[in-house]
Structures
1.
Amino acid sequence: MIASLPMYDWPEVRQATDAWWAGIARHLSAQGFDPPRRLSRTAIPATPWRRPGLVLSQTCGYPVTHDFRGRLEVLATPAYGVEGCSGPLYSSVIVVHAGGGISRLEDLRGATAAYNALDSLSGHLALKCVFAPLSKDGRFFGRVVKSGGHVGSMTLVCEHKADVAAIDCVTYALARWFRPALAAGLTVLARSPSAPALPYVTAAGRPPGDVARLKRALAAAAADPALSHARDSLFIAGLEFLPSDAYHRVLELEAACDAEGYVALA
């Protein structure tokens, strides 16, 4: 079996991530699974998602509804206790350089936008959703640059190498808490529409009984007092078990952008 929790695995919270996994693994064992003792950490987060032995990971809603549709099964959705989240829903903040004189979305027409990856709801699609109503002939920004990650996008804005980026609210909370100098260089200009937060997933095709046991283990971990410190350190206020079609919200947001005629960031 393989397990990974790559989405918010900053060095500053790695100890908490490992403690959270150890607790989940204990509850998985109680449900009859033989989970790995350690998380898999790879340079490419998607690598474990391709393995049939994946027992648990966390991914963005966009891969679940696109490249990994039918290959990953959603188990639960964390409810994060940070600004920009409401229960199992989250959003992105649209950030610009602090003190840069940008006060309106329209001020960014023709500017340079940073995005983390094309398959990101929070860093790419969120940016499109916010600026779609302002686009003309499918364009708004003058230039775009791929950063490879939210931290990279924030850094580009801070260093005046980009003018704007969309950062998921949990990552932004991590930056404010653990990297205040980075966050201090940014100002929140707007927020994106909300969607279900980054889900916990397993390899698709597991028997329904196994899926039910995985969900019971996660529910037990979310209620375990011994894991409260790990959960608090990761801003996890709880886990929710949403309907199977909850992540269709991603497709709805994408369709709304297309309806605006906004087909590209640059």
2.
Amino acid sequence: MQSGLHVVSEIASQPDCWRQAAEAGHMATDRLPTAGERVAVVGCGTSLYMGMAYAALREAAGHGLTDAFAASEFPADRSYDRLIAITRSGTTTEILDVLEAVSGQFPTLAITADPAAPVAGCADRLVVLDFADEKSVVQTRFATSALVMLRTSLGHDLSSLPGHGRRALDRGLAPELIGAEQITFLGRSWTVGLAHEAALKLRESAGTWSESYPAMEYRHGPVSIAQPGRVTWMIGEAPAGLSDEVSATGALFVSGEGLDPIAELVVAQRVGVARALARELDPDRPRNLNRSVVLSRR
């Protein structure tokens, strides 16, 4: 397979994966948190950002306190009713360490793509999204499918989401997005996690200078780098007046144009790949990265 084609096909497969993920969400209700439980979600990199999005959505829906942590920063002395670990490979050392540290204290669930991975021996229960596993180092469809599954478990009707995904795949990519010197992603509430993920995709795939912030925080310093040749990209609904403020700097302001924020993330994934190919980089195998971070365990 030629460079970059794994991630291209994986990005394109997301609408179909989301249908299966929604079905998985309905089938996994006995393993997922019930309303009122205190829940912690842990992940690393992309999985952390999906956990952040889910945590904000669950609390906003009134289902109970939900915290998201980088696995390496989980406060082991804090009590929860349930812990969810999101890990595509099921091999990430920090995830395994957290699950072993809390074993017997409260129930644990791992969402993974590989039922035979080491995480299966550390978590009490599994939700396996093997249909969304990936060959590329860069995560795309597993992450969005995990979030679709979790959103479905909260009662979200996502029947229209695959159509949004197809629109995201068909949308033309403006030359300004491919050639921009710098791109900043913004989000609000649950889309802050998606903004962090979009920025990570551009860094991973194309080595792009990309940043991410809660939208209202953008005015408190980060807007100072906005200028012609740079982009500010809002994932979700923008705060009043932000578009005009960004445009006044000469930077390009981009919004989701009515897409579900998960579908808007697909556009950002495509931009990352396009920027990588324009620089003759391989978006399947970013420099300095492996598919999973496996450390020596003491």
3.
Amino acid sequence: MGIPGDIRKKYPYLDNETILMGYRGSIAHGMYLPKEDPHSIDDKDVMAVIVPPIEYYFGLREWGSKGTREIFHNEWDIVSYELRKMLRLLAKGNPNVLSLLWLPDNLYIKRTEWGDMMIDNRSLFATRSVYHSFSGYAHGQLHRMTHYKFEGYMGQKRKALVDKYGYDCKNAAHLIRLLRMGIEFLNEGTLYVTRQDAQQLLDIKKGEWTLEKVKEESDRLFRRAEEAYDHSKLPDKPDMEKVNRLSVDILRRAHETIPPTLEK
């Protein structure tokens, strides 16, 4: 499965300026439900890292909105980050972007030598500080689980499922997954993106857990996450000097081959 040609034709930077691209979200976690499934409210989520032409670094133009562009096309949701924006998010321990550096090979759509430089240096972003971002995102999912907000082309179907089960099962599955991934990361320094517990998480996503059971499990995992943070042997925070050098090295090498062609 790859990005449809009509999307790539309309947004040529996906081919011309991308140094790393892979699946994220439910496809990456092994939890994707096709739209034919009565419980499906999933997009086909993709993330890309972009190095635009050098004029965007020396001129006055800004790439995207503060370094971000997002494409919504039917079930496709493709978010692209300019390299420096991506590295800043990685340094903050953002769970969504960290996953791109720990994907199995078969979930990458495009890899280049510069994208591989990011993957080869992913240990720079394995720090204890990820506890705050993972637990913060998990608290957000816990709140949204019972404070409903329905958006996108699946909004009405999602609302119907919430009405059926009494809470947002997709948020509940995200909550449990985030906490488990954060605990593993703090303990081992590795992000297990494709989940061995995918079937159990799918059970949650399909409403097979009660709201009370979800809350009990999340309470237990929040406590375990705090313990993992206290005992983690990872560095406290990223070495930003090394992250900065990585950025310079990638940009210098990439711009030796990326042509100076501005969008009209």
4.
Amino acid sequence: MVARHNIQLYDYLRREYAGEPVTVILDRRHGERREREEATASERRQADRRRQLRVDEAIRTRGFAVVPEIIGGA
């Protein structure tokens, strides 16, 4: 996931990983809270929030974050 202001890095990574099992995503969020369609257990919500905070921090400080794919997840 690449910060929206870092289009050059996004383009570079898309070219570099073309044909690989990697998805490069441009972060289009504006900081608003995203809502989930389904209700989840409290433990899962807490884990999701911690993961989201780490991703947000990495995007702010480095301009990108490496996020594992969550199969069957949000």
